[in-house]
## 1
Amino acid sequence: MVTDCSVSTSLKVGRLEKVGVSDKAEVLSLSEVWAKKYVKDLHLQDQALLSLEQSKSKLDVAAKLIDVLRSISARAWNKTETLLSREVRRHQISASLIDPWTISKDVHLVYEEALAAYAKGVTPQRFSVAASKRLGAIRQKHTAVDPRVIGFVSMQFHYCGQMLSAEAPESERATLQSYFKVVDDLLYMPLHRAYTAAGNYDYHHPRLETVRLALPATSRIAKNIVNQVIALCPDYATYTGPLSEAVVRTSSIRDVEMFQIYLWTCMLENNISAIAQELFPLCVMLYPRLKVSWGLVRLMVNLLDQELSACVGSINVQYYEPHYTAMLKMFSPSTFPDPL
């Protein structure tokens, strides 16, 4: 509460030219006191911020990252635009569908929730369950008119996650990245769409049984394939760095997981639209910009068939094979003659 005395002092400090000569010394003294107090308060705030930045407490780390989220979102937007603005024009995606304010709002909501889960000790698995519906709705909202918009949206979220990780104490980065990976996965992959399609089947339907066999092995299969690709192409480097570099390896694993989820979505929907209208344009938009060759993509897709057939058994291959073959043809040398 502001007292009459403080109001009076404030008026004197702010209107020095209107006071009498006898009061000027007092006012100048008060202005000096006020200036020193302001600088002292700033110094105390600097110390508090320094303490927060050096703290390893999850609550303090989360508070610091939420504090810088706005500036990080702006930096991520610039990076995304630099990477994809030309592709948006080349693919003739309407600029009106890419709303920076709506996307920024979604980024804030999702990463605030991720950081809150991290601070409270909620496991990434439980956070994934809690966030699935919201991220599914965000994904659906941005792809309703043109599915290709997901490329721009997902890169914005991805870069935000990377930049937030870089701002965190090194000891906490691996933990935080497991929460940010949930965000990446749920945006890049049509999981909500796959779950909706699965709801149309009886529990014991062979298509659903095939997915039940494959889904728990998604990450293991992706890691196996990426390890094989790294072994076969040890000198290959993308826009971000060599395939064996941690950040590139993590993104590569996510991409192989993404291909699997798109394949299961197509199998459950019994049509190729999810791959044809969303995955394929997404790859065409992103991979050349990220310096990922089509030969490398074909190698990954070929290895995928071997891993999936071993996982689900030869009797179940028939259910996904037509959709897998269609995907393989989309990325064939006749479409993209680019060698490995």
## 2
Amino acid sequence: MKIARSTKVAAFAAAGALALVGCSSDSGSSSESPAAGGGQIGGADCATGTIKASGSSAQKNAMTEWINAYQTACEGATIEYSPSGSSAGRADFINNQVAFAGSDSAMEGDELQQAAARCDATPPINIPMVGGAIALTYNLEGVDNLVLTPDVTAKIFNNEITNWNDPALAEVNPEVSLPDAPIAQFHRSDGSGTTDNFTQWMAATAPDAWPYEPGSDWTAKGGQGSKGSDGVAASVKSTPNSIGYVELSFVETQGLKAASVDNGGGPVAPNADTATAGLASAKVTPNPDAGEGDLTMEIDYAVQDSAAYPVLLLTYEIVCQSGNAADTLPLTQSFLTYTASTEGQSMLSGIGYVPLPGELETQVADAVNSLS
């Protein structure tokens, strides 16, 4: 079995007060200081007030469900999440425009030091909250069981395989009638942790076919850019003979098709069970440059297991370990306590995500509890 190159990864319009909106100029303080709201949800004491967050579009559907549930249970709480993309979310956090940021890549390097300025001179921490599969979604009439390998995928997204009946595609799909049609390839136009994880997988498993450094910004040749996971999903859905990559939740909510991926152990379709198996080998590897309590993780993208889907991500919530604003800390801590709880995590598998393993769930809960 090939030894994996492990790399750090940053895992519904709701009614009433719920909003998925852009962030303004502060971290979300309100005229009413957050306080105990008199109820509980998922073991968390309700808090009141307003906080804003932004970032990962991959976790948009999870955030919408969580926010709706929290605001329904906790009167007087308003949580606004803007799915602006991981890079934008990290920038908003550094600029003190949000209480926390969502990112499919852990914050590291210079960004940690830049963010320390708003965190009482202490670098922030990365807290994994949402696990999931990155689906290779496609729109091919009459093709319901497409298989892709790392090499073929990398060549498609590097504009080396440009037609659906290319011999390399036909070889891995011997029983499928592939059309003689150009491939319309879609990738993220915005800085994206989903792109980072997707390119980490290709670099780890098909280095000859993918000669680029993994990262949040798309650097390969060819293809068309679309903003956000919802933008890529919509582009694929509306474009015949197309392919793109999105978090599995968007495939399920928009009724799209997803290819099985053969990493060397046989074709594996993306779903909650196979993504859970793929993430089982992920390990906590705290970044020594982050704050105490950091839970940055490593994923084995080259896993070869017929039950484990290999194209994965973990979405992190990036938050100050200390130095949180007094008017946003209670609601931030209460909401993240709920999302990390068994109750909060249990809803994920029903909407295309993967709940945190029990041991990691405990570590996440401890990290959230330590915020000050």
